[in-house]
Amino acid sequence: MSESILELTSLADELESYIRVVIPGSKTVNKYGGTLFTLKPEEKEAQFCGVFMYKKHVQISFSNGVDLKDPRNQLLGSGKRRRHLNFSSSKDIDFTELEKLLKQASRLSA
């Protein structure tokens, strides 16, 4: 395995662990090639975010990202609902801002 794949795998694991800490009641579902997080595992489309690994970055995708307050305009995407953040390294992550977004997203799905 290449060093970059190992680094991205480690980054994805770090982000997933962080989500579990910030949203303690969340459950995971492996789907669409990533890990989805939900507070209502019995509901088919109740995920509030997901972590996906790509060749050069790890993405956190917010299911209702269009409804999130994002004063820094850091969320990416132009679809109807979803918005995302891309990270190439843990140095790229502002954990304080990420926590705010995760808490908002989980409340929207509750």
Structure in words:
- The protein has two helices and five strands.
- It is α+β, with helices and mostly antiparallel strands and 110 residues long.
- The chain has one domain (3-109): Aspartate Aminotransferase, domain 1, CATH 3.90.1150.200.
- The chain has a five-stranded antiparallel β-sheet.
- The longest helix is centred in the N-terminal third of the chain and has 20 residues, at 3-22.
Q: Could you provide a short overview of the structure?
A:
This protein has 110 residues and is α+β, with helices and mostly antiparallel strands. Helix content is 32%, strand content 25%.
The Cα radius of gyration reads: 13 Å
Q: Provide a count of the helices.
A: 2
Specify the biggest β-sheet: 5 strands, antiparallel
Name of the CATH architecture = Alpha-Beta Complex
- The tally of structural domains comes to 1
Q: For the residues shown, what is the average pLDDT?
A: 94
What's the arrangement of strands in the largest beta sheet? Answer: 1-2-3-4-5
CATH class, anyone?
Alpha Beta
| Low-confidence blocks of residues | none
Strand content: 15-25%
What coarse outline follows from CA principal-axis ratios?
globular
